[in-house]
Amino acid sequence: MPISQKVKESITRASWIRKMFEEGILLKKTFGEEEVLDFSLGNPTMEPPEEFFAELERLAGQKKNGRHRYMPNAGFSEVREAVAKQISLESGVAFTPQCVIMSCGAAGGLNVAIKTIADPGDEILILAPFFAEYLFYAENHGIRPVIVETDENFDPDLDAIERSITPKTRGIILNSPNNPTGKVYGESFYQSLNELLIQKEKETGQPIYVLADDPYHKLAYDGLKPPPAPKFIKNCLRITSHSKDLSIPGERIGYLAISPNCEDFQEIVDGATFCNRTLGFVNAPALAQRLVAGLQSLSVDIADYQFKRDLLYNALKETGYEVQKPCGAFYLFPKAPLSDDLHFVKILQEKKVLTVPGTGFGRPGYFRIAYCVSEKVIQRSLDRFKDAFDEVAGGNS
Ligand SMILES: Cc1ncc(COP(=O)(O)O)c(C=O)c1O
Predict the structure, then answer these.
(1) Alpha carbon of 324 to ligand 1 centroid (Å)
(2) Most C-beta atoms within 10 A of its C-beta, which of 93, 120, 160, 357?
(3) Ligand 1 centroid to 199 CA: how many Å?
């Protein structure tokens, strides 16, 4: 057996994504990069803001001794201070540098957070549709992901959450603005969830932590400010990165911020710092930490994403697709005009349009379009989305 059975199984379960990816590469080879319209990955084509490059140049000129050495596993204190200042400003909660652990992207931060709060055999709630990697992150640490369905508008269902809580529940992952739906959760949801979790904590003596996975926090449209989870949730671990808001996913820089209101605050900080080290991250990249310290309040041009959202959303609606207007992030999650989302994605693929079936996000019957691409790609896709729709017209059979 060359590789572990568990890894083999995981690869098989994720195989449709791999298939899409590999078929996409093949299509691009056959027809040329230009001809294939790739909406499959949330890998933004937008360049980082100018300030990022200015900071990069400035830092490259600093050749003082020791700038590239190890540092405390939680990161440089001055970077943690800059991050704490920004979250305090956004949330109204007094985060200190001690609350912040710099991480290798949100993915690294999530793995650290999950491992820190739960033992093997414990459970983490995940709202469907979900970012598919959550399942693997939980399983990395022997923790059981428990899927909780949202309603037909992708709004969280508090009763369903309550029904899913067991004595083994240690946390719930929330992602707003959401991948894949673009949904932004409202203040009243956070308030009600907090009440529910406090009630459960009273019953069991065991806190249930909210892992607020926030990489799209700054990407919201029409002037909307997504409610900051730590403002409303007592036991909140906020995990985020600059992969999307500064368009630098390759730099692997993000952080985990533990609310000072958390039950067992210091233990969580110590545990997460230890996990950051022993999961093999050791610390977030030194240069990337310094790079983002002064860019905390910045983001890429939201107006550009909003323009692309409107362009694609309006065209899909006009064609006849059933689709919700996303309030944030850069994904559309329309209903497939066929009940078999895999089949519909295949039809789009034949038209050289790459999307991802909803099945992979735990919501079959839908498909995801990542519109973090150029306007030209969107413009060229409109006829193809229409052709695919017309081909299966007759509706959701
Ligand atoms: C909801 C969500 N969480 C986490 C991540 C991981 O982000 P990062 O690149 O910062 O690890 C992504 C990336 O697409 C995401 O969509």
Answers:
(1) 22
(2) 357
(3) 31
